[in-house]
Design a protein that fits this description.
Layout (H helix, E strand, L loop, with lengths): L5 E7 L4 E6 L2 E6 L11 H10 L7 H10 L4 E5 L18 E2 L13 E5 L5 E6 L10 H10 L8 H10 L3 E5 L10 E4 L10 E2 L5 E2 L8 E2 L4 E6 L7 E2 L5 E2 L15 E5 L2 E4 L3 E5 L4 E4 L1 E4 L10 E3 L2 E4 L8 E4 L3 E3 L3 E2 L2 E4 L2 E3 L3 E2 L5 E4 L3 E7 L2 E4 L3 E14 L2 E4 L5 E9 L2 E7 L7 E5 L3 H31 L9 H36 L5 E8 L3 E5 L2 E4 L6
Parallel strand pairs: 20-22, 21-23, 22-24, 23-26, 24-27, 25-28, 26-29, 27-30, 28-30, 29-31, 30-32, 31-32, 32-33, 32-34, 33-35, 34-35, 34-36, 35-37, 36-38
Antiparallel strand pairs: 1-2, 2-3, 3-4, 5-6, 6-7, 7-8, 9-13, 10-11, 12-18, 13-17, 14-15, 16-17, 18-19, 38-39
Length: 541
Amino acid sequence: MDDNEKMAEVGGRESGYLFEFRSDGVFLTVYPNEGEGILFELSDMRQILREYGVIDYDMDLLARVVRKADGMPYRLAEHFEASVVPTSMPELETEVFGDESSANEIQDMKFTIDVSKDRMKVTVRIERQPKMRPPTSAAILEALASRRIVYGIEHEAIEKGVGRGTEFIAARGTPPEAGKDAKIIRHFSMADKNKPAMGAYGRVDFKNMNLFVLAKKGQVLVTREPHTLGTPGKTVFGDEVKAKPGKPKPMPTGKNVELKDDNTLVAAIDGQIIDSGTKVSIDPQLVIKGDIGAKTGNIDFDGAVEIGGDVQPGFRVKATGDVRIKGVVNGAMVKGYNVNIDGGVQGMNRGVIMAEETVRALFVENGKVEAGGDILIEDVALHSDLRAGRLLAIEGKRGLVTGGYLAAGEEVRAKTIGNQALVATRIVVGVNPMLQRQYQQACKEYAEAKKKLAQLTKALNTLGKIDISRLPPHRAAQITEMTRSQFPLAGKVERDEKLIRELEEQIAHMQVGKVRVSDKIYPGARIIINSVIKNVQEELQ
């Protein structure tokens, strides 16, 4: 027999492969596939070799030849032992793998490969049968390669799976990680709105109802965590799977707010926070339709306040802007830039009205009113303490002033001062009462600070004769602290001296005050203009 004598061949160009069983070995030729689809599986090649009794062959070379498909013959083995050459090859199912050796050999168990619909998991199922051996890990890997499964192969799981001879996961893809939705973070809480504050010893303070949530200009109100695009995944076939991006969310931009950057919302003005859910705004005005009382609690607002009803006794309204009250102030405290009280003030000897600029009211009775600018009363002022920085005028329907204390920096005007009962009414003009109060307070603070500084200086002079290094640590620390406190105290004394000089200069340059009465002034009135005092002894027109 020739060395190159061909004993059998299987396949051909139309099959995509050609096995040649020759005297010098077993040769395989895999032709290039110019069409579409897979003409055969790697397992088909192995089955043919088993049919011809080829046991000892180069498995790695077999796989390479199938992948290259270059039409060149390669020798896979030197010998084959088939005594009967089969005339045809049986058809094989592409997902069923396993050896079908001769009856005298122990055959390998068949197994199937199942790829999930999402192509993220490969399951190997081994058909357990008696007197058959489980497939090898190499056989599983070849089967995976023949199915083009190249990603996420779990070698350790395959080793364990074939050892147990059961169903196992041979490969896993990487699922895509969806992006995160944008997140809006509010840096304020509306949860405590309209809830009473807690006072000392756990007592509920129903006068402080937290009616609104305040913000200062520049305060951060809202921040946004931007949405993410997610991380793409990969199937067991190595194909990329796009991730679902997160959803963006718009910033809740409302009125009187501004974007500091794309993801930070800040207050553009002082005011109360209004949160509608989709918009966050700052309202510079607070409107309360009814009374200020137990239902609302005290009002302390950065901005303007409008009250549709009365202010009940014992409650407080404070605002940095204008205050408008359509009802009556009854024994309450009201403070604002300008204060307008349509219904007047029933002070009850405890009510206080304060304004940086102007106070307007229908009447004042048994109350205290202070204004840095003007006090304008339409009807009457009865037994009240009224102090205005410039003008104090009671010139409305009756224009009557009876009893109490009236002070103005420039002028007091009224139709009638006093009454026939000779009620004592004191009127002081020519010195701004606000400025005078500030001067008195500055003098008081200056005297206290100067006294403390003198005592501290004296003590330090005495202690300066002691060797501090011999003192206990806590005593040395006390002396050091006393030395440090000397400097800010000296600074306050210096600032108070300067303020007192400035106030004295302003008081000295004030114009001569005036008192104008258009109808009558009754005995009992006492008028002080700067240092000039006039006691009214008889009724004057």
